[in-house]
Design a protein that fits this description.
- By secondary structure, this protein is mainly alpha-helical.
- Strand 7 and strand 8 form a beta hairpin.
- The protein is globular.
- Strands 6-5-8-7 form a four-stranded antiparallel sheet. Strands 1-2 form a two-stranded antiparallel ribbon.
- It contains 17 helices and eight strands.
- Among the domains are: 144 residues, Helicase, Ruva Protein, domain 3 (Orthogonal Bundle), CATH 1.10.8.350; 56 residues, no CATH class.
């Protein structure tokens, strides 16, 4: 739950925060620019603009007070939570610039399952094996999966974020781009304080409001957080990660986790394979995929773990995975394919599994936001409607790319590459 994501098929936009990671295109409603204008006396201008924004922000807080009280927040809790809370322009700037920070999936996975993260994951799994085994027994979610999520979200607790969550959520609520979403998070953050689970000073996290060892947004905390030891508090912030790890397992379990089923298996596709069959919508039994010539990296048919899809996040030149329902369960935690593969692959590595064996098209680079929009525009103008120009490479854009590739006699892998854009140009 710790990254800002947009798009699939090889590109992931990275930021911080978990369920604040949905990217909407809501209208902006900021009172002033978050960047100072380039003019004489620029330093004074920057200070003046922030003061103006903060004045409007303080008026917003007073209006929000009534809405919070209507949701059951007491005056005492509200006053304590909003003491010394100010508008933070840096938070808005981070939110505005998410979509420009893109990585290819192989660059992302190089970091997600780096030698250091794998080594630290093995240590964390060994150090906390007792409690992780208890959690696995109670919720049915394997210890290595919970550990891998912990590793990606906060580097096993080392980087939990030190931003004041109330201030961050209030700033983003006032900003307005995703105001309704963040105001709902803010209300639940206040309910957490009112319940006594933590204090305003201790409620720290990412700039987007994600908290604790495994980076829960407040609404997710309210639904899934666990008091594993029964001490009366669901404490995901302390140095002891027990409640946070249990909360993550509970989240996956309640989202439909199947004990013993892999998230996915790296596979090799046969020559002449129909790439139009790849992607989440097409599901077949492993036996049916085996009958088409698909094997694991050791040349064996994949065991029957249930209905599966074939995913090629780096296109025809990259690795292929046979993915199962548990892949989709992890996507409930964070919806980027790259994140799910990162969690799954890291979990394999920290239990002694091999690195991904297939090559990636490392000569490619990620498309920038403007290029992704241009790709959609050019596809639509060429008669392959992407049903929107938003720079997000989702199922409709992938389908349009595939149709275009077929029309050109290319491999229809649906991969949004620079080569496809250049050909469209």
């Amino acid at each position: 739950m710790g990254k800002i994501k947009s798009g699939v098929m090889g590109v992931i936009a990275l930021g911080t925060g978990i369920f604040g990671t949905v990217v909407y295109a809501a209208p902006m409603a900021v009172e002033t620019s978050i960047r100072p204008l380039e003019r004489p006396g620029g330093v004074v201008q920057a200070v003046t603009e922030i003061k103006i924004s903060d004045a409007g922000f303080q008026r917003w807080i007073q209006a929000f007070r009534a809405r919070a009280q209507a949701q059951g927040i007491s005056e005492g809790v509200f006053q304590q939570a909003f003491r010394d809370v100010h508008y933070d322009a840096k938070i808005v700037e981070l939110d505005r610039n998410q979509s420009e920070f893109t990585k290819t999936i192989w660059d992302y996975l190089d970091s997600a399952a780096s030698d250091t993260r794998v080594a630290n994951g093995k240590k964390a799994l060994a150090q906390h094996r007792g409690v992780l085994d208890e959690i696995e027994q109670r919720y049915g979610v394997e210890a290595e999966i919970v550990t891998a999520i912990w590793g990606l979200e906060s580097a096993y607790g080392a980087v939990r974020g030190n931003t004041k969550v109330i201030e961050a959520l209030a700033t983003l609520s006032y900003d307005g781009r995703r105001g309704a979403f963040f105001e709902a998070q803010l209300i639940d953050a206040l309910k957490i304080l009112q319940n006594g689970d933590t204090t305003p000073a201790n409620m720290t996290g990412s700039w987007a409001g994600a908290m604790g060892h495994t980076q829960f947004m407040p609404t997710s905390y309210q639904t899934f957080a666990q008091d594993f030891r029964g001490d009366g508090k669901r404490d995901i912030w302390s140095d002891d990660p027990t409640d946070a790890l249990a909360s993550t397992a509970a989240y996956l379990a309640k989202s439909g986790w199947i004990t013993g089923q892999p998230w996915g298996v790296e596979v090799v596709l046969p020559d002449g394979f129909d790439y139009g069959l790849t992607g989440h919508p097409t599901k077949k039994s492993p036996d049916a995929w085996a009958a088409m010539g698909i094997r694991d990296i050791n040349g064996n048919a994949v065991p029957n773990h249930g209905p599966a899809s074939i995913l090629m996040p780096g296109g025809a030149k990259g690795a292929a995975f046979m993915i199962f329902k548990n892949f989709n369960v992890i996507e409930r935690y964070n919806s980027a394919d790259a994140y799910v593969i990162g969690v799954g692959h890291l979990s394999n590595r920290i239990t002694g599994g091999p690195a991904i064996q297939s090559d990636w098209p490392r000569e490619d680079r990620a498309l920038k936001l403007a290029e992704r929009k241009e790709l959609q525009e050019r596809l639509s103008k060429a008669g392959f409607d992407t049903q929107g120009i938003d720079g997000k490479i989702g199922p409709k854009t992938i389908a349009a790319i595939r149709a275009y590739q077929r029309s050109m006699g290319d491999i229809p892998d649906g991969y949004a590459s620079l080569a496809v854009l250049k050909k469209l140009r």
